[in-house]
Design a protein that fits this description.
By secondary structure, this protein is an alpha/beta fold. The protein is 38% helix and 18% strand.
Length: 277
Amino acid sequence: MKHPNIFSFCNQKGGVGKTTSAINIATGIAQKGHTVLLIDMDPQANATSGLGIDKSSKDPNIYQVILGNIEAEQTVKGTSVKGLSLIPSTFSLSGAEIELISLIEREFKLKNSIQSLKNGFDYVFIDCPPSLGLLTINSLTASDYIFIPLQCEYYALEGLGQLVHTHSLVKRNINPKIEIGAVLLTMADFRTNLTNQVINEVRNYFKEKVFDAVIPRSVSLGEAPSFGQPGIIYARSSRGAKSYIEATEEFLKRFPCGEKEETKEEQRAPVNAEVNQ
């Protein structure tokens, strides 16, 4: 079976620009003429509100999809960005971690739900919650690549080993095809020595997986979600927006649009409970 590449935007540390990166790169790709589906798997629903959709709405959402109460196709919403669609999240998703525990094949709920839906898009992005629980495991199980936004601060490096370890567990036990696709450095303050030290450390560790584009701290990127707009639309001439436009161009070079063959081994791998511990 052929399918587009699926990317989990993942970092268990909050406030690193994960959702901002997912929204702006998805928008940039859509503006290049591709179709993108953004799935909001974060109970905070920031990707939902950041695209101008009411996260308190009772409209069909990813929570209902995960629990098998509704088909994923029924939840897809258009956005103000041509070519960019969204499956919204809701605060109720926070309870899904507990509800999933007793379900059979709980790690595969998202993957199974979007099997038919994903083929209608060139790219699928999943905005993961800032944790490594079952919602994130579901996202990684459904994905081809992990996309790691990483804040240019010392503490951002501390939890990185845990994320890399989780990737190894998922790859070994559930999803053998998943790779760390890219690392994007965010919230850089080039006036400080620490920023440059972190950039050098990350590049030494992840090598060519680190994007050349670096996202600076930007007031306009922080303001954009309150207006329900991606930063590259809200303030396209700002430094932050220009950096995301560069990151988008680099993304498309690294991951050109095209379908990927899925083998039978990739479609189903043995589940190991160690991943959820």
